[in-house]
Amino acid sequence: MKVIVLRLGHRAGRDPRISTHCALVARAFGADGMIYSGEHDSDFEDSVNNIVKRWGGPFELRHEKNWRKTITSWKGASVHLTIYGMPVQEKIEGIRKARNLLIIIGGQKVPAEVYHRVDHNISVTGQPHSEVAALAVFMHELFEGKEPKRRYENAKIRVVPQEAGKKTVEKS
Amino acid sequence: MKVIVLRLGHRAGRDPRISTHCALVARAFGADGMIYSGEHDSDFEDSVNNIVKRWGGPFELRHEKNWRKTITSWKGASVHLTIYGMPVQEKIEGIRKARNLLIIIGGQKVPAEVYHRVDHNISVTGQPHSEVAALAVFMHELFEGKEPKRRYENAKIRVVPQEAGKKTVEKS
């Protein structure tokens, strides 16, 4: 299953930290890449690409001005994460059968047409919280919690889990 | 089970948005409250309290300068969420048996002693991403994904899940 996250409406001045969290969550929970619309932002891209270079990939981040084209040209199923959608617990089994999946997460204001262009509007908890958290829990459910088994290519560093303290293995 | 989240090292200038996401995640996934150390921040508190007033509670947010006291005086088990810890998948079953749980999430630099003062250092994925996401997935596992069944007291608004579009019920 190929999984791409589409982050709508990035604002370079205000959002780099939240968008960086979204991109790192996408990578850590098993997405192949993230596309973001809104303002182009080299600093945001650099901070994500530096993590990918050090911790491994593949993970591709790219900007796309025309988010509508990204949705309509997508070959596969699409999910929009929104507080107003159906509970992830009810729908995830069906969504797991998709061949490719586009996961859309909003910025401040999501145009109404997004709700109607996607295959599923999905909510994580039905309460207001965070697109970072919604993406993480949705992907955790999508891949049934198998994150510790993921392997990353060309990683220069990885963590060796410890009961207390820090241990990493690095290669140059 | 009483669950409190302890957010370390809040910086009023830089962190309000991430800390707000953390507090809202704590509330939406079933914590009773959040304690934060670092700088006191009324704007951050107001934005969280406004959500609690509208979407229901109980959920208490308070500042505590002395995070060490919060950890040592805690009556119950404690978990520190860190990339360096043991996989949540391996440890969650034991942690679910705790009567009360303090969940600690870091700011930029977590003092080494935190790793040794807690009962469990737990990692979500073992990859770098986001304390917001780590908290959400940890709590989602802790309560076995039962978020849609939670009821909030004195809520003025709640969402009615929809396949497409937005529906809420409000009462004044």
CATH homologous superfamily label of chain A:
SPOUT methyltransferase, trefoil knot domain
Structural class of chain A: alpha/beta
Cα radius of gyration of chain A in angstroms: 16 Å
The stretches of 5 or more residues of chain A where confidence is low (pLDDT under 50) are none
* Helix proportion range of chain A: 25-40%
Molecular structure report:
The structure is a homodimer of 172-residue chains. Chain A has 172 residues and is of the alpha/beta class. The first copy, chain A, has one domain (2-170): Alpha/beta knot, CATH 3.40.1280.10. In chain A, 34% of the residues lie in helices and 27% in strands. Chain A has six helices and eight strands; from the N terminus they run βαβαβαβαβαβαββ. Chain A has helices at 16-28, 42-55, 67-72, 88-95, 112-117, 131-142, and strands spanning 2-10, 33-38, 60-63, 77-87, 100-105, 120-123, 157-159, 168-170. A six-stranded parallel β-sheet of chain A has the order 3-2-1-5-4-6. In chain A, helix 4 (88-95) links the parallel strand 4 and strand 5 (100-105). The mean pLDDT of chain A is 96. Chains A and B meet through helix 1, strand 4, helix 5, strand 6 and helix 6 of A and helix 1, strand 4, helix 5, strand 6 and helix 6 of B.
